[in-house]
Amino acid sequence: MPASAVAIPQSADSSSLRDLLRRHFGFASFRTNQEAVCRAAVDGEDLLLVMPTGSGKSLCYQLPAIARGGTALVVSPLIALIEDQCAKLASLGFKVARIHSGLDRAISRQACVDYLNGSLNFLFIAPERLRVPGFPEMLAKRKPALIAIDEAHCISQWGHDFRPDYRMLGQYLPALRPAPVLALTATATPSVQRDILEQLGLTQARKFIHGFRRSNLAIEVSEVPMPMRGDLICELLQDPARRPAIVYAPARKRAEEIAVQLGQVCRAAAYHAGLPAEIRESVQQKFQSGQLDCVVATIAFGMGIDKADVRTVIHAALPSTLEGYYQEIGRAGRDGLPSSAILIHSWADQRTHDFFLKRDYPPIDDVHKVFNALGADPRSLDEIRASLASSPTTLHIDEETFAKAIEKLFIHGGANVDYNNNATRGATTWTKPYTRQSDYRRNQLELVQKYVDGHQCRMAALVLHFGDLADGKVRCGLCDFCHPTGSSARQRPATRGEIEDMQAILDSLRGIPGKSIGRLLKEVPGDLTRKQLDTYLAALAKAELVSVEDAEWIKEGETILFRRVSLLSNGQEPEAALALQFQLPADMPPAKGSRTARPFSSKGVSRSAAPESEPIQLSAASQQLEQALKAWRTVTAKKLGMPPFIVLFDRTLRAIAHSCPTTPNQLLEVPGMGPAKVEKHGAEILAVCHQASTQS
Ligand code: ADP
Ligand code: MG
Questions:
Q1: From ligand 2's centre to the CA of 69, what distance in Å?
Q2: Burial of 390 (0-12, 13-18, 19+ CB in 10 A)
Q3: Which residue has the least CA distance to atom 13 on ligand 1?
Q4: Which of 63, 247, 308, 447 is surrounded by the fewest CB atoms within 10 Å?
């Protein structure tokens, strides 16, 4: 390690940034987005950076730190991360120090001395250091040139890994200014983003949220009952084009069963934490070198491997977090070639998760009972358990619940347990963090369930989940939602009765900004089940007649999340659904017969009672234009892969032919043409009209 900090260039134009990148970090070029982020940081802007794990966020504070000169203060929540980053930076020749609880006092003291005399490029600290009296004041004596807060989602109590110490960071920042503050994380939902910025007091921060889209990955989510999954996986992976593949199984036993079954169609092996280290090592190596086609693994697999040509990742059950799922599907197609990620699940999966959640987070009343059984004098856990069991009111606390409760109390400070398994009562403050953590776990499961039930492009849903609101508007065109015919799920045409149900849904949404799914279920006539309604909404959303979005609603200070269904402009057409043929999942029993006599047809916008508008009489020239418009519509519909009606209704098309508009404003006045349609197709329609009028 050199004795003094790396000398700093004073200017920071693009070429000098690139020069620094090459000279000090040894990289030939910036990765996507890195340069823009570095530039903003060098310019002294506060920023929030959300990019996937492995995308190179560290460089985004390290390079600006060097470019700005002085010492960068880096806050990082895990000792292992601090050690890892310090070692890397030191090996690059930077002067680095760190302060955390895993180190000798002498080392920490030296770090402070080096910080104060300005000889460091980087000082890494664990957040709890700031609670040490005098430490924040020491830092403020010499202002850092830049402050980086890594894994910034830990600040937010909505984020996973919430760290109370991170929450206090905001109060120390003013004394360390004017340094720019960079908050970095791989995962921040919009509410977590808001929370991070609020907690840190970053009112002017620029947000850089990028890189979550994987454009070569076709995602498919399919409902398949448990007993059929093994066969399906074999059927899929029989195709050599789908290999190499990784199958994620929910438990060790399942991993082994599937691996055995897969062995009939390809070279497969199981990989899980229950196997001896040599076997795991060998499986990993054989997969890496191509001697194995498939690995059936529990979550442990994939961290250490760097195999670019994985064609398929299959989840044989519902994952427990979207973060984990995203990371796992991310192991497919690292080489950029088309790849697929297939998730199979069913209702039973949710029940399994519920079971584990209840086991891992016993009801708080039970935990309270265990807490109350603890005293000031140490008693052995067995004794405490026995005393609980003999009390008539606590009979139902079984051994497993007791063990879990003690563990949770211990983690959250409600119990002190010594090395001999004797426990005393701890602080009463355990309830809050306990509740928060169990709520958080439950919420994670709900998010996964919502994802699989979603009526939305799968990739867009993931991109949105990770906080990229802009990119989240773009459909991928590959997933089972965007491209249902490409998926392996079987479909059948909707019956007339089902199409009428869907029309009833559209009717009930007309003229209002949107409704929750729950309200729709109550209000749409015909006693639809939730499952039916979900299937219909999926079909309506695919046809771009409705949108289904996450929304939140604040009630008595609490944020309530729900899904809002609203009509899109195509859905505004009075008979939008009736004019379409829909595909529904083949395993859904068809709704019976035509339902013309059902109540909904006599209320609201009644189709039969709707006043028929006067049919438009077209001149010969207009008829020609109508034909030209139809030809254009066919081509456009084909291009979009949509039925022609999605582009324009016959009635609207006829009205355009009749009025032959020459400006966008005139086109907008044609009944059936909304701003969205004019925006999308206006120029082309006007061109067709113009051509027709010059020919006639
Ligand atoms: P993150 O913090 O986003 O998860 P890291 O900052 O740890 O990711 O970077 C992941 C890997 O990418 C590291 O090995 C790093 O050296 C490498 N890396 C970062 N930027 C570049 C670059 N411009 N060119 C090549 N490799 C890079
Ligand atoms: Mg990182």
A1: 22
A2: exposed
A3: 56
A4: 308
pLDDT recorded at residue 449? 92
Checking if the pLDDT of 52 tops 90, the result is: no
Where residue 63 falls among pLDDT bands split at 50, 70, 90?
Answer: very high
Whole-angstrom distance, CA of residue 435 vs CA of residue 293: 44
pLDDT for position 594: 37
Q: Which of 18, 22, 59 to mutate to test the pocket of ligand 1 (most atoms within 8 A of CB)?
A: 59
Task: Give pLDDT, residue 17.
Answer: 93
DSSP track, 626-693: HHHHHHHHHHHHHHHTS-HHHH--HHHHHHHHHH---SHHHHHHSTT--HHHHHHHHHHHHHHHHHHH
Query: Of the residues 21, 58, 86, which should be mutated to test ligand 1's pocket, given the most ligand atoms within 8 Å of the CB?
Result: 58
Which domains, and CATH codes, for the chain? 14-209 (3.40.50.300), 217-347+454-473 (3.40.50.300), 361-437 (1.10.10), 491-585 (1.10.10.10), 620-695 (1.10.150.80)
Average pLDDT over residues 576-595: 70
* pLDDT, tens only, 107-139: 999 999 999 999 999 999 999 898 889 999 999
Of all protein residues, whose CA lies closest to atom 5 belonging to ligand 1?
56
Tell which atom from ligand 1 comes closest to the C-alpha of 57.
Answer: 3
Q: Whose CA is nearest to atom 12 of ligand 1?
A: 56
Strands 422-425 and 379-380: antiparallel
Distance between Cα 509 and ligand 1 center (Å) = 48
CA of 657 to the centre of ligand 1 (A): 57
pLDDT in tens, 452-510: 988 889 999 999 998 888 898 899 989 988 876 555 556 677 888 888 899 999 999 98
Rounded CA gap, 629 and 535, in Å? 34
* Residue-level length of the chain: 696
- pTM, entire model: 0.64
Say if residues 458 and 334 touch (Cβ distance below 8 Å).
no
pLDDT at 64 over 50: yes
Question: Which ligand ends up closest to the CA of 57?
Answer: 1
Question: What's the confidence (pLDDT) of residue 694?
Answer: 85
Do 298 and 272 meet the contact criterion of CB atoms below 8 Å apart? yes
Q: How many CA atoms lie within 13 A of 418 on its CB side?
A: 8
Residue 49 Cα, ligand 1 centroid: separation in angstroms?
Answer: 14
Q: How far is the CA of 437 from the centre of ligand 2 (A)?
A: 23
Q: What is the pLDDT of residues 517-534, one digit of tens each?
A: 889 988 888 888 888 898
Nearest to 297 by CA among 279, 315, 310, 320: 315
Ligand 1 cavity residues, CB under 6 Å:
27, 30-31, 34, 51, 53-59, 186
Spacing, Cα 58 to ligand 1 middle (Å):
7
